[in-house]
Amino acid sequence: MPVRTIKRRYIALKILGDELLNRFQLIDYVKSCLSQIDGVELDKVKLRLIELDLERKNGIIRCNHKYSKNVKDCLQDLRIGDSEIIVRVLGVSGTIKALRRKFLTN
Questions:
Q1: What angle do CA 79, 102, 78 make, to 5 degrees?
Q2: Residue 76: which CATH number?
Q3: Does residue 104 belong to any structural domain of this protein?
Q4: CA 101 to chain centroid
Q5: 43 in any annotated domain
Q6: Full-model pTM
């Protein structure tokens, strides 16, 4: 059985505001924030939007475990564009199942 060397972390998000959020807007803003931090290489972060539920206003982002704090810092109280879209971090977990159980159950 092959061993995956990249450990992943999943970050739960809550989206506040009435405007619709494009899937690509969120990742672009996080990548631009990460590119301004010294010592962070975007190709090593392995940033990916796993889920974006606009009805429940939440989402899940996956990243490398070494950069999870940097991604979390970029997402914390992120304001996207001129509109009133605010992204809040609910929590971080090592698996999607645990993330949904802890932070995304209603």
A1: 5
A2: 3.30.70.3250
A3: no
A4: 17
A5: yes
A6: 0.87
